[in-house]
Amino acid sequence: MPGPKAADQGREVRGRLLRVAAELIAERGWSAVSTRMLAERAGVTPGLVHYHFSSVHALLTEAAIGTMRSLVEGLGPLLERAGTAEEALDLMLAALDEHDGRDPLSLLFAETYLAAARDETLRRSLAEVVTAFRDRLAARLAAQGVAAPDQTAAVVAAAIDGLMLHRAFTPGLTAPAVAPILRRLLDGRVLT
Amino acid sequence: MPGPKAADQGREVRGRLLRVAAELIAERGWSAVSTRMLAERAGVTPGLVHYHFSSVHALLTEAAIGTMRSLVEGLGPLLERAGTAEEALDLMLAALDEHDGRDPLSLLFAETYLAAARDETLRRSLAEVVTAFRDRLAARLAAQGVAAPDQTAAVVAAAIDGLMLHRAFTPGLTAPAVAPILRRLLDGRVLT
DNA sequence: AAACGCCTTGGACGATCGCCCAGGGCGTAC
DNA sequence: GTACGCCCTGGGCGATCGTCCAAGGCGTTT
């Protein structure tokens, strides 16, 4: 058996590297994150990075997907609790208001989207995470009688991400300003 | 007077570097474009890059903004010619259909958005270009009686960009699929 | 012809890159 | 105790990075 003490510390360091990686992707950009940056901020030696991960790219991928997955999964139950479709939309608008397009989380999302366009594996994982969220939202919209719930959910999700991207250089794009517009997306009702 | 022959060739090389830069931003990503890459593809020596531009970053900025500006300005007249607001939206949907989120133009836009989040100067220039387009679209929507034309235009523009980003890993997100949903955004009419 | 202006070359500078590996520390299993 | 397994260090590999600069080509102006 492996020594449990050392193994625990190893897992701790691995986790720290993942957290640091998510930070640095946002700060410097995906392809500008280096082995030595990661090691320095995590308080370890550069060599240790390649002990825990097969490559820097693999570390970044696991960090980005992991962070996004846990965040999206945390949003799920909140979505379930939303009574009306409008409340579900308000939930996403609240998320929009917490970010200005230049904060770590917004940038992590955007960087990962972009990196996925150039990496097959990352693209698959990302699709999995986003699809899971979209399906949850679509189910919520369907229960509220919104027509074409799948496509509506896809457009709402894309619109929120697009607004996040645009907010970085358009400060006026706040949640209260766009809420009335986005609400129109829910207007295709089957039932009143 | 400067020798006009050499000056002409200089301008030609400068322009070629700008075109190559726009290509490489899309292919490799903003921060992964190097002096030597640019020089090789443009068929010149690495040293020449820093003769025509103060830095690689300055070259990338000028290339990205220039490409985006000329593209957006080319879209302006087409927008002017659109009769109804729905036709204006169809025009943007057609643009969406030409790109799949992994083509050079989509990636150039996304890369520039992201780079702008970390660079004040780029952010200002980008805001100028995007605002110009948004204003044109808003004017078109206002003429068609759409309520809150400014915010509507902002949301439509952001939604199109967001859809482009999502299309990279969600192939089903085609223009025909999302057109009926996006059309709801124009439903806030003052006049019939 | 000589001087000037602009474009261009090719090489050099120190810094940083991803990745690899020999070796040491240390707790557990024989 | 000895051997084993895992974590970790520190240094080294060749490659690439952005930027700079001395030197030369070449058409235009005196």
Description:
The structure is a homodimer of 192-residue chains. The first copy, chain A, has 192 residues and is an all-alpha fold. Chain A has a single domain, classed as Tetracycline Repressor, domain 2 (Orthogonal Bundle), CATH 1.10.357.10. Chain A contains 9 helices and no strands. In chain A, helix 1 crosses helix 2 and helix 1 (4-28) packs across helix 6. The longest helix of chain A has 26 residues, at 56-81. The termini of chain A are far apart. In chain A, 41% of the residues are buried. The model of chain A has no long low-confidence stretch (mean pLDDT 93). Chains A and B meet through helix 6, helix 7, helix 8 and helix 9 of A and helix 6, helix 7, helix 8 and helix 9 of B. Chain A binds a DNA duplex (30 and 30 nucleotides) through residues 1-7, 9-10, 13, 34-36, 44-52, 55-56.
Distance between the termini of chain A: 64 Å
Helix/strand/pairing class of chain A, anyone? Answer: mainly alpha
The CATH architecture of chain A can be given as Orthogonal Bundle
- Give me the CATH fold name of chain A: Tetracycline Repressor, domain 2
Quickly count the helices of chain A: 9
Please give the most extensive interface between any two protein chains, plus how many residues each contributes: A-B, 50 and 50 residues
Helix share of residues of chain A? Answer: over 70%
How many β strands of chain A by DSSP?
0
